[in-house]
Amino acid sequence: MSPTIDTLAGSTVLITGAAMGMGKMYAQLAVRDRASHVILWDINAAELEHTAVELRTGGSEIHTMVVDVSRLESIEEAAEEVRAGVGAPDILINNAGIVRGKYFWEHDQRSDIAATMNINTLALMHITREFLPSMISRGRTSRIVNVASAAGLLANPRMSVYSSSKWAVIGWSDSLRLELAQAGHKHIKVTTFCPSYIKTGMFEGARGPLLTPLLEPWPVTERVWRAMKDGQPMLMMPWTVKLSTALRGVLPIAAWDVVAGRVFGVYKSMEHFTGRR
Q1: Which pLDDT does position 211 carry in this prediction?
Q2: Structural domains for the chain
Q3: What per-residue confidence (pLDDT) applies to 2?
């Protein structure tokens, strides 16, 4: 069994989408937990450097890399640089993601559909595949966090492509957890994170369904961090995500559509979505 992690002293942490929002918060927690190396990947070079400046006073060695995770070539080049430098991470936080809130037929095939699937789904697989062999062979306690979404558990209008990208993440991530256990690599634990809307600006304009207010990012980040250190297989937030998933599983589709659409307001939650400007 892989024990609960008490400290990250001596560990290397890699976070994608680390320049701002919850990615930056994960980096702050890594520094607070005394990680030796914190590697920040993001496509936004300016924000990435601002974040690095803030973090470098905390005692960890901060490494910044401008990486376009929508491109396999960019991932491969960055991963090779990491392996050649500090070595594969002990903690991998697959956090980077984008959202497009519109009807399916309004999506552009390249800038919307391909970009969403590349960043939200394929990037997580490619990045994990780059580092996992080393994480397996060295035998140290390691963690992988894959950020999915409640949208990957429940269908929702104006989220068809985003939802599909997160459905794929959940299926892959939880299967990876089982594969590692079955193959005897129990020193690596995988946590799949499925939140409802979080106040990071990414879902600006979205309205939380009944009993599901928009989540505050810092408490959510801390809760994910605890789940990661404990090796918790899946984390859903808030509690209504579990309730909705259970109801969707037992109710006939027509009945669930009434409950989700008219009672909880899930199907109207994206009507006023604008996203981050």
Answers
A1: 87
A2: 12-268 (3.40.50.720)
A3: 54
Residues involved in catalysis? 162
Positions of the chain with pLDDT lower than 70, given as ranges: 1-2, 277
Q: pTM for the whole thing?
A: 0.96
113: which 2 tokens?
């559909």
- Cβ atoms of 228 and 202 closer than 8 Å: no
Token pair 């062999």 in the structure block, residue: 133
Can you read off the two tokens belonging to residue 73?
């070539």
How many residues in the chain? 277
Structure confidence at residue 276 (pLDDT)? 80
- In angstroms, the Cα distances linking 86 to 6, 36, 231 are 22, 10, 24
Name residue, tokens 């491969």: 76
pLDDT of amino acid 209? 93
How far apart CA 234 and CA 192 sit, in angstroms, is: 5
In this structure, what token pair is assigned to residue 271?
């009507």
Distance (Å, whole) CA 115 – CA 119: 6
Q: What is the pLDDT of residue 274?
A: 94
Q: At what angle do helices 123-138 and 160-182 cross, to 10 degrees?
A: 10
